[in-house]
UniProtKB/TrEMBL annotation:
SUPFAM superfamilies: GntR ligand-binding domain-like, Winged helix' DNA-binding domain. CDD domains: WHTH_GntR. This is Transcriptional regulator NanR. The keyword Phosphoprotein does not apply. InterPro entries: GntR_C, TF_FadR/GntR_C, Tscrpt_reg_HTH_GntR, WH-like_DNA-bd_sf, WH_DNA-bd_sf. It comes from Herbaspirillum chlorophenolicum. Residues 120-147 form a coiled coil. Pfam families: FCD (PF07729), GntR (PF00392).
Length: 235
């Protein structure tokens, strides 16, 4: 039997038409949409329908709405796209413990690949930046929050060498989603030195343009470090 036609709410019609105009290029990134009053006149609807449509677009990351200003079309990037699911991802990790294990497995799969790509593609300048990142990471040992930020930045820097903007966005996002689970472990005495030593091995392999060694060093870092962090935290 054919499915019955669903009745649509007015805001959905407004949303669809606005999105069509954005996709057609009428409103490019960083441009402003017409005012609420103009949209009401253009589509022959009331203010509630227009506002609900704009709010739905904001929740989906298509526009930004500042108080007293017209909605502005967002410049789409991989970072923005992945940030849209951050809250949901963190909620999933908190409510379903098995998901943390699955995410760690996914992270190992992704980052061993980006380490291999970095070894194949890194320029001398990019290797120098990685070495500098380790020094900055070491200097941040006195500040836990900065140490964790430097840790994340190091992994993103490696993914960035791939040249694919999606990889660093995913690497950083997975790191941030699970960061609350790592904070107490990073506090454990000796954990910081372990992290820095393993990062150094990764960079040395990348500098030597040895893809296999870089991938293995990253795999060892992400798997062995988890177990050692756990042991350190129990001391």
């Amino acid at each position: 039997m054919p499915e019955p036609i669903q009745r649509r709410k007015l805001y959905q019609e407004v949303l669809e038409r606005l999105m069509g105009r954005i996709h057609a290029g009428e409103f490019p990134p960083d441009s402003q949409l017409p005012s609420e009053r103009e949209l009401m006149e253009q589509y022959g609807v009331g203010r509630p329908a227009v506002r609900e449509a704009l709010q739905a677009m904001e929740r989906s990351g298509f526009v930004e709405i500042a108080h007293g200003e017209r909605a502005r079309v967002v410049d789409p990037t991989a970072d923005r796209l992945i940030a849209q699911i951050a809250a949901g991802a963190q909620h999933l990790l908190r409510t379903k413990p098995d998901m943390l294990r699955h995410m760690k497995e996914a992270r190992v799969f992704l980052e061993t690949s980006t380490a291999r790509m970095a070894a194949e593609r890194a320029t001398e300048e990019q290797v120098a930046r990685l070495r500098q990142a380790i020094e900055e990471h070491r200097a941040s040992m006195v500040n836990l929050e900065e140490f964790i930020e430097r840790d994340m930045a190091f992994h993103r820097e490696i993914a960035d060498i791939s040249g694919n903007p999606i990889f660093p966005s995913i690497v950083e996002s997975m790191f941030r989603w699970a960061s609350e689970f790592y904070t107490t472990l990073v506090r454990a005495p000796g954990a910081e030195e372990l992290t820095l030593a393993e990062h150094q091995r990764i960079v040395d392999a990348i500098a030597a343009h040895d893809g296999d060694a870089a991938a293995e060093a990253m795999r060892a870092h992400l798997t062995r470090a988890n177990e050692l962090y756990r042991a350190l935290g129990q001391q």
